[in-house]
From TrEMBL:
The chain crosses the membrane at residues 21-49, 87-107, 128-148, 160-181, 217-238. The keyword Lyase does not apply. It comes from the Bacteria. Keywords: Membrane, Transmembrane, Transmembrane helix. GO terms for molecular function: oxidoreductase activity. This is Oxidoreductase molybdopterin-binding domain-containing protein.
Length: 417
């Protein structure tokens, strides 16, 4: 028996009996559905941040035509962003074993010679390289950002946005070329070719090693890995007792204890550089600017205004969310009326006392300001906000990403942005 070739360009280098059209096709069809959902929910996340609708929130200003789909993000249902972003992050992590298994199953094709047998084959190889590189980039940056919390400060959003378009373009091209054959392959029983259909055999080992597990067993192993990741991630979005299972998710584990303010915190007052002297009753003032000028309000004056309550969650781009919390404060549209907007309120520019971290400033669209559930919150669950939850006042808006619910609010400017 000859020794195994040392170079991966030789077909005999690859000896696993698991590789083959059926195994690859099953994984490919799972990714066809999963990656499509990931791409759509990712685009929705960018729409929720209102890029291109407000330059304040636009983290990808050079996107051009790639922003064709953007629209004002709705305020209802209140769990909308919690659902779409929770689905995006949980599904992305769940698909990691499927992606790795799929890449492993087709790795011999990356070394096949000659590099291109025809123009069509060359296009297929280019799409495959972009697909593999783009897939690894998108999944790696996404998982790192989720687990390490802004591991790409100032650059993650454009990197992930443009990378997603490159990856999905290659994904669509590859799917158009391969999906029909994959469907036919999966439908065939026991690998028996249909009449007139040529079986792809470039993935089948020419000198396979003895099998240690069946292909169905290997799929079960991949599925088990995905199920494990799902169970240790999804609780961050479901909340309640399921949060105890979110061991691999940021802010996972049991709900924080500690009374009315005992729920998940993304960034603390210390991290944001909040000086307690600026937030005290005697020092803090809210500056509200609009059509008729500027109004300065202390906490006592805000408390004399009509107070309203909203039951709303906080949902973050990393996929975690809180349960609904009971917020109480002054409606944003009532604050707009103080500075000359008695009818439909305009857009709003919010500034925070925060010194460190992203989104020290944020923009809210007119539809968000007009919603009666959008508050400048002073209380949560019947108690004053804690410093880490934004004392003395924070924004809370239904269905908005958590970073737009600005904490430690110092100034509100109403008007076209």
């Amino acid at each position: 028996m000859r020794d195994r070739p040392r170079l991966p360009v030789s077909p005999e280098f690859w000896r696993s009996p698991l590789r083959g059209p059926w195994f690859t096709s099953v994984l490919g069809l799972v990714l066809l559905v999963g990656v499509t959902v990931l791409f759509v929910t990712g685009l929705l996340s960018y729409a929720a941040y209102n890029p291109d609708l407000s330059p304040v929130n636009d983290t990808t200003p050079g996107k051009g035509i790639l922003g064709f789909y953007l629209f004002p993000w709705p305020t209802g249902p209140v769990w909308l962003y919690r659902f779409t972003q929770g689905l995006h992050v949980t599904l992305g992590i769940t698909l990691v074993p499927v992606l790795l298994a799929k890449l492993w199953s087709v790795v011999p094709r990356l070394f096949a010679l000659p590099p291109a047998r025809s123009l069509a084959h060359a296009l297929e190889r280019i799409s495959l390289l972009l697909l593999v590189g783009g897939g690894l980039f998108e999944f790696t940056t996404g998982v790192l950002n989720v687990q390490l919390d802004y591991v790409f400060p100032g650059s993650f959003y454009p990197l992930h946005f443009y990378g997603a378009w490159v990856f999905f373009a290659a994904f669509v091209a590859h799917a158009v070329l391969k999906a029909p054959a994959a469907v036919r392959t999966v439908r065939r029983r026991r690998g028996v070719p249909e009449a007139g259909v040529r079986e792809e055999d470039d993935l089948v080992a020419t000198r396979p090693d003895a099998p240690t597990v069946s292909r169905r067993g290997a799929l079960a192993l991949v599925g088990g890995g995905s199920l494990l990741l799902f169970l240790t991630t999804v609780g961050q979005s479901l909340g309640g007792p399921f949060r105890r299972t979110a061991l691999l998710a940021p802010h996972g584990g049991p709900d924080p204890a500690g009374g009315p303010n005992g729920f998940q915190i993304n960034k603390t007052a210390a991290y944001a550089g909040i000086d307690p002297a600026e937030t005290g009753r005697d020092a803090w003032r809210l500056v509200v600017t609009g059509r008729t000028g500027t109004v300065r309000l202390d906490r006592a004056q805000l408390l004399r205004m009509p107070l309203h309550s909203s039951s709303l969650p906080i949902a973050c781009v990393e996929g975690w969310s809180t349960a609904d919390q009971w917020w109480r404060g002054v409606r944003l549209r009532d604050l707009a009326a103080l500075v000359g907007y008695d009818g439909d309120p305009p857009d709003l520019f919010v500034e925070s006392l925060q010194r460190h971290g992203a989104f020290r400033h944020a923009a809210l669209r007119a539809n968000q300001v007009a919603d009666g559930r959008s508050l400048l919150a002073l209380y949560v669950n019947g108690e004053e906000l804690s410093p880490d939850h934004g004392h003395p006042a924070r924004i809370i808006v239904p269905a908005a990403p958590g970073v737009l619910n600005t904490k430690w609010v110092a100034r509100l400017t109403f008007g076209d942005l």
